Amino acid sequence: MRQFEIISAAVLSMTLAGCATISSAPPVQVVIATDAGRLVVDLDVEHAPVSACNFISYVTTGDYDGGSFFRTVVAATNANPNPINVIQAATPRGSDDASRPPISLERTRDTGLRHLAGTISLARGGPDTATSSFFIVTHDTPSLDFGGGRNPDGQGFAAFGQVSEGLEVARAIQAMPADGEEQLTPPVVIRSARLIGERPSRCRN
Predict the structure, then answer these.
(1) In a domain, 131, yes or no
(2) CA angle, 127 as apex, 83 and 179 as ends, to 5°?
């Protein structure tokens, strides 16, 4: 009986070790090089596949190259009853990029993700209208989650990843000069956005 227990413990240990190996797979990362510095974003393809794969599709075709972070919103100076802290980016075609169809909204209610400091999320008007424009949250902003009041429809925005390097760059961009319409003056140019490694299999269809 004692021998069986030892063997079982050994098998369990090997199984757990195997699970640890599987769960430690490297994240899907995109490097965004800007005139203000470098950002590395870890994308959550597992929990927000529609949004993450949409973003990757624009990255892999070079659509963000020459685009910009064009908008800054600072909660302390924002008149909205639900103030936020974000910087927003777009392709050279602008935030209303009509080059591809909009995608379905992945609500934080369903993905389990939250708009914390460093979260990358998709900009939108109504539900199911997001295309290429994205924003980075510089401080925890729960009003952007499902049920939050930033958008009157209460559906929130589609978080799909997290800045793993360069949050200080995002905060520096947020603090740059802007006009009365929250437009950065001048915008911060995106030199390139590149996927590290291969496109995830989930994003190849």
Answers:
(1) yes
(2) 40
Cβ-proximal residues to 172 (8 Å cutoff; 6+ apart), any chain: 36, 37
* CB-based contact 106:114 (threshold 8 Å): no
Specify the pLDDT at position 205. Answer: 72
- Measured distance CA(68)–CA(89) in Å, rounded: 5
Residues (pLDDT < 70) of the chain are: 1-25
What pLDDT is recorded for position 176? 98
Per-residue confidence (pLDDT) for residue 15, from 0 to 100: 44
Angstrom CA distances, 123 to 9, 15, 52, 55, 87, stand at: 50, 42, 13, 12, 11
User: What residues make up the domain containing 173?
Assistant: 27-198
Of 185, 200, 125, residue with least CA distance to 155: 125
- The length of the chain is 205
State the CB neighbour count (10 A cutoff) for residue 109.
12
What are the tokens at 197? 């490694």
Residue 41 sits in a domain whose CATH number is 2.40.100.10
Q: Which pLDDT score is estimated for 1?
A: 43
Tell whether omega for the bond before 177 is within 30 degrees of 0, i.e. cis. Answer: no
Q: Is the distance from CB of 42 to CB of 28 less than 8 angstroms?
A: yes
CB-based contact 87:71 (threshold 8 Å): yes
